[in-house]
Every structure is written in C-alpha cells, then in structure tokens.
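We both want to read discrete structure tokens more fluently, so let's practise on a single case. Would you supply a protein for us yourself, any chain you care to pick? Would you write everything just below, so we can both look at the same thing?
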Amino acid sequence: MNIASAILHLFPGKSPLKDFEIRDDSDGKGPYIAEWNLEEPQPTEEELQAAWEAYLEAEANKPPELTEMEKLQKENALLKAQITAQSERSDFIEDVIAELATQLYK
C-alpha cells in the first residue's frame, strides 16, 4: 500500500510534507505516518487500506488519457460540427431575409 496515495484519496487537495509526512526507517516495519497536521483525525490502518483499495479501483476505472493526436482529432470534429451549425444558421437567416424581402416588395 502506498500510504501517501491512500491519504490523498481520503483527503483530496492536501499536501504531503505540509499536511502529513510519511517515513520509512528501513527497520523492516515499512512506511508509517510520522506527522499529521490536519484537523481531521488520523486514519486508522483499516481506513488507509480501504482508501488504498478505493484509489486502485478509481485508477483502474479512469478513462485512458488521450494522445495529442486523439485530442486534436476530437477538437477537429467539434470544430467541424460548429462550422456546419453556423453555416446552416446562416443559410436559414438568408432564407428568412429573402422571404421578408419578397413579402415587403409585393
């Protein structure tokens, strides 16, 4: 378990080294919370394990990051749709003006 990631999953927006500190003394006991500077109570080992599992699940279900090319293709499709919509609106307005002109000059 990555304790820092579990804590950040429980408390989004908090800052390691400022709000809490994780240490590993290389004594075989593994990492632990050395300092806790938050008003919220320090999470228990069980809460940290549950948060770690929730974090892993959230990461696994996160949609994949788009490549630069995919982002540009998506943006291009959106821009094309916007241009088409603007063009259709412009055609409609021209038709309305033409109809009004024929009514006016009868």
Summary: Residues 68-104 form the longest helix (37 residues). The radius of gyration is 29 Å. Residues 98 and 104 are 10 Å apart (CA to CA).
